Structure formats: C-alpha cells, structure tokens
TrEMBL record:
Function recorded in the entry: Catalyzes the oxidation of glucose 6-phosphate to 6-phosphogluconolactone.
BP-aspect Gene Ontology terms: glucose metabolic process; pentose-phosphate shunt, oxidative branch
Reactions the enzyme catalyzes: D-glucose 6-phosphate + NADP(+) = 6-phospho-D-glucono-1,5-lactone + NADPH + H(+)
UniProt record similarity statement: Belongs to the glucose-6-phosphate dehydrogenase family.
Pathway: Carbohydrate degradation; pentose phosphate pathway; D-ribulose 5-phosphate from D-glucose 6-phosphate (oxidative stage): step 1/3
Binding site for substrate: H172, K176, E210, D229, K323
InterPro entries attached to this UniProt entry: G6P_DH, G6P_DH_AS, G6P_DH_C, G6P_DH_NAD-bd, NAD(P)-bd_dom_sf
Enzyme Commission number(s) from the entry: 1.1.1.49
The protein's name in its UniProt record: Glucose-6-phosphate 1-dehydrogenase
Species of origin: Paracoccus suum
Chain residues that bind NADP(+): R46, K142
Keyword annotations: Carbohydrate metabolism, Glucose metabolism, NADP, Oxidoreductase
Keyword Transport carried by entry: no
Amino acid sequence: IPVDEFDLVIFGATGDLAHRKILPGLFRRWLAGQIPEGARIIGAARTQQDAAAFRAEAIAAIKEYSGTPPDAASLDSFAAHLDYIAVDATGETGWDTLAKTMRPGVIRAFYFSVAPALFGAIAERLASHGIADADSRIVVEKPFGRDLESARALNGTLAQHFAEGQIYRIDHYLGKETVQNLMAVRFANMLFEPLWNAQNIDHVQITVAETVGVAGRGSYYDQSGAIRDMVQNHMMQLLCLIAMEPPWHFDPDAVRDEKLKVIRALAPIGPEDIVRGQYRGPAEDYRADAENPDSRTESFVALKVEIANWRWTGTPFYLRTGKRLRARTSEIAVIFKEPPHSIFDESDPPANALVIKLQPNEGMTLRVNIKEPGPGGMRLVQVPLDMSFAEALGPDGTDMPDAYERLIMDVIRGNQTLFMRGDEVEAAWAWTDPIIRAWDEAAASPEAYDPGSGGPEEASRLMHRDNRRWREIR
Ligand code: BG6
C-alpha cells in the first residue's frame, strides 16, 4: 500500500549511512510499490553537485549495497524521484533554495544522517527558514548523546524547534522483523505470557555477537565502546521488549510507557556484575584497529542485570555483546525453571528453553522434554521444537525487509511506535552513566580475548558463580 505523498530531505546524503542503508532501503520500498508517484527524495549535503551527479551516486550505492542486483530500468525510474541541493549545515548556503523546493500539502520529513554536533544547527535552520511545518518529522540517528547530560542537551535543542511527536529517534534494532516479533510472540499467544515471570523463568540470556571488528570506524568506536555503542540502545531495547508489561494497545506511547518502566526499574549494578573485554591478537588487534595503542575501550561487555519489580525480582538477565567473536549471532534465550519434582526415577527433566533467534537464520526454538524412544524405562531426552521463519513463511520469510525500510516508512506514516522517546533515551543513559563513570575512575584495562573466540574467559565467571552457563556462540 503506497504511503501518502512526501518530500524526504536526507541531510548527509553523500555519507556512509545514506549509501548503505537509507537509499537502498528506499529503493526496495519503491520496488515494493510503496513510494507514491509524486514522492521526492532530496539529497542535501555540503558537496557541490547537481541532481544528475547525485542520482548517479545513489544508483552506484544501491547497486553496491542492495543484495540482489537491481535492473537498470528500475534504478532509473527510482532515480527520477531524487533531487539534490548543496546545503551548508552551519552556514547559509542552500537553505533558501531548500525552502523554495518544499511543496505545500505533502508530508515533509528530514533525516539527520549527520554527526550529532550538527543536529542543533540543522534544526534551527529548518525552523528559521520556515522549511519545517508543524506536521514535519525529523529523524535522528544514534549516537543520541554520549551520557545523560549530552542526551538531555540534545533533547533540549531539538525541543526548541520540534514537538516530541515530530522527533523520530532511530534505534534500528526496533526495525528488525524478528525484534518486532518479540511483541507478537508475547502478546498474541496464550502460551507464553502466563509463564513470563520470575516464578517460572530461571534467567534470560541476550546475546548480540558480531564477527566484524572496528577497523575503519575506530575513531568513533574508541570513544564509545560496547556499552555506549550497543548496550545503552540496542541491547536495552531488546531487554525492554522481553521484560515489559503488556501495553494496553499497540500504540506509540502505550508501548514506550511500558519500556520506560523497565528501564527505570533496572537495579544499579556494581563492578562484580560486569566483564569488559578487548580483542587482542597478532593478526586482528583492537588497539591496532582503533589506532590507539593504549586504548582501554571495551569491544566486548557482559553484564548481569536485575529488574527490580514484582514480575522479575529473582530472575537475572545476562547480556553480552562483542566484536570479533566466533560467529555473527543474535539471540534471546529464555531459560525456564526446572520442574519442581521429577516423577521419573531414571532422569530429572532438564529446564525448558525458548530461544528466539534474531539474526541470522531468524526463527524460534522451544526445547521440550520427551521420552527417549525404546522399550527400557522412562528416560527423558530434550528435543527442539524448531521453527525457522524462512521455512514457516516461505519466500516471505526469507525476504525480510531491512530495518531501515520499515522505519523510514513509519516516519512517513507518522507512526512512532518503533522509535525511542526522549525520556526513554535519557533513562537508559541514567542507568549506564554510573557504569561508565566507575570504569573511568578505575582506569582498568578490559580483559583480553582471542579474536574468533566466545569472548573473555572472565565472562563465564558471571554465570558460573550462579551455577549457570552461557549458551555457546555459534
Ligand atoms: C550499530 C553499531 O548501531 O549496530 C555497530 O554502531 C554494530 O557497531 C551494528 O555493528 C550492529 O547492527 P546489526 O544490524 O548488524 O546487528
């Protein structure tokens, strides 16, 4: 179903994110028939070039980054929607032209795919040149601040020109199909929700493991580390979706209110509940990749998190994420308690587990106990009830839209459900700030781990002392 007609301005249109994600995402939506005939996508950046040059640049980027090779005719028809205006974010160049280009009566959206330091300048100029109207939307990328103070300042700056209902803070994890599925699984089935609490769930493991390192983006990453880059945003969102109460409706504020309550209920954590790691090896070395021989920034972090509320007290959530690990795999494993009493002499039934695979090979596995076949006694065996979305849903299951496709269309539709509200971002920083501060004060180095491993040995400590263990990363 096509969305309403729009003018989408992409600030930073010549940058990496526009090339890799935004333009290919828009192209795929166009192929799917969702971009209306009259829609315009206006590239805006400092580079002096004309629309033809930008179209050629966009076509090259789409060819490079959009999976299946697109045919030339489709690319040309898509490129006909593209325009370009050279704009200086902190100067005066281009703003009047942009103002004249915007059409009345169509949706206006402005994508800030630029360094956060420019957000304020752009917001201010959009307002002062009358380019944005009361219905316009702005889309802001992460990092949304680097601590509570800077996030508050950023929220304050944006709020001078835009209402909260106009601000779309992207966390691309929320655009992933399988992440949205967490809500479908929990709130559209009677099977899980009655068991979804500390009485029945022993613990939860959330893993986002990556094989990539930080080479090429070391200067950003070295200032952030895994906690700022992944935990404060993506992991926190996953945690919220797993732990939140059912919202009364699938409505932006209803969902975000419930997520916020989870973040606010996070118990402060001490150094004994965190392990930081840094990949160190002769061939692949974090400090070399980051071009900082003394770096103490973590490329891996594992944490034990407690949610201090009635539903979850007593059920820890173990989170871990890292770069240059053995495999690229993201999953959430909900480990249930063991049955309170076994009626079988031969074996105690092991705990059930529900594993939700976010990427790759999206799917869900429920580990259940059955009788091992054979004439002997009553020996139990645990088997997976396996569901791969690709198999269950056919071609539609494999052809999942990229997170950005979904999110950009939501901006045009005016649906903020999958975007972070200002208070949510601030609450997440309020929880991570003391962790980071303690690290800075301790000035200790992260534990070294081998590239291609499962992370530092010390991460197992978090689990072993609780008589638990991590699922293997593979
Ligand atoms: C980004 C982080 O937000 O998410 C990257 O900055 C990380 O460091 C990436 O690699 C992971 O996203 P995905 O979609 O590949 O899991």
